[in-house]
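Running this now, will post back.
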Amino acid sequence: MRVRDQRNRRRGALVAAVLAATLALTSACTGGKSGGQGPGWQDAAEEPAPKASVSITEPAADAKDVPASTAIIFDAEQAQETTVELADAAGKAVEGTLATDGKSWLPAKALEYGGSYTATVTATGDDGRPVTATSAFTVMKQPEKQVRISSFLGDDQTVGVAMPLIVKFGREIPEKYRADLQRRMTVTSTPAQEGVWHWVSPTEVRYRPKEFWQAGSKVSYRVQAGGLPLGDGWYGRADLTVDIKIGPKLVMTVDNKTKRMTVARDGKTIKTIPVSLGKKSTPSSSGTMVVMEKLRKTVFDTYDELGPEDGYRTKIDYAQRLTWGGEFIHAAPWSEGVQGRTNVSHGCVNVSMANGAWLFNNTRVGDPIVVKGTERKLQLGNGWTDWNVSWEEYVKGSALPYEPAEDALTEDDDVTDPDVSASETATTA
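Update: finished.
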């Protein structure tokens, strides 16, 4: 026992000596510093935080019952670049567009009712270091109360240069909801043209450019109202997109003094037509009107309005509606003998059968007609009277502050939503 212990002690001393020599040799080979740390050792230095920061404000994380129209709203600071990604529960990416102010992102279409989504916003500062924020949320179930949204025009129609874009709603839109709705109503025109939305009533909004549409333009408008809260528990039923074309610039000008209509196409006079306007007791309206409806054959029936003594029922050819009150351009063979000399109509623009047919074949819904020098001014709202007010007055009908377009726009630039037909009964001839 004692001999074995001595041997173990000698063996342990030998191992300790070898270990000490090895450590000394290693220290000598690595050029050790005081403290025993070589250059391979470093103090842990903290990395500076990324310059950019980002947070998602809407929808809040884990939010429930989110409207299907929701936008991703975020706050990014010191960001040189910001990207937004939205994915459904299966990981499929949702298309969308970043707002021009860089503070929100809107899906290209309404989200699925009851669906789950995750939004990821990434902001990168000038240091090149990205930061991200995420928000997972669930869309509300499909609501019972939905507002129908319709357009007067349908896809691929060709209209005149004075055609307003007309959108109607199935119920009144409370004033406090109109601005949010209008933010989701966009118009794209090629070539670019300045314009604005104008609320003519709680159920109807129209868009017109500052000047007549340029001939040959392509126009697309969108109303991204699907799932959008519209007041009192009502939501937009669906998004709406319409693509149209603008025809040649055809303008009709009627002068009561000369009893003539001048028809100009693209700035050049192509025809002069004798007319008979409304007699003194039923004068035609002076102002800028728009062809709203074209009827090859119709019947003017005024018995309900004027009674059995003054009312009449007359077959009419080549009728083009100008006002809701019943003013038309139409063929009137009974007044051909006085056309160009005397006014005998009940307010309409009378032309001959031949000229009525020519006009009918050369005009489109949306073509403008300017009537001058009569005893009565056109009443605002009696037809599409959008062009009968100044631009300064028109922009006051917008639910959003009007911002004039930049002068730098070029002709190649774009500027950034079942047909409804005019069904009012004709009343004058």
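Residues 1-38, 408-429 have pLDDT under 50 and may be disordered. More later if anyone needs it.
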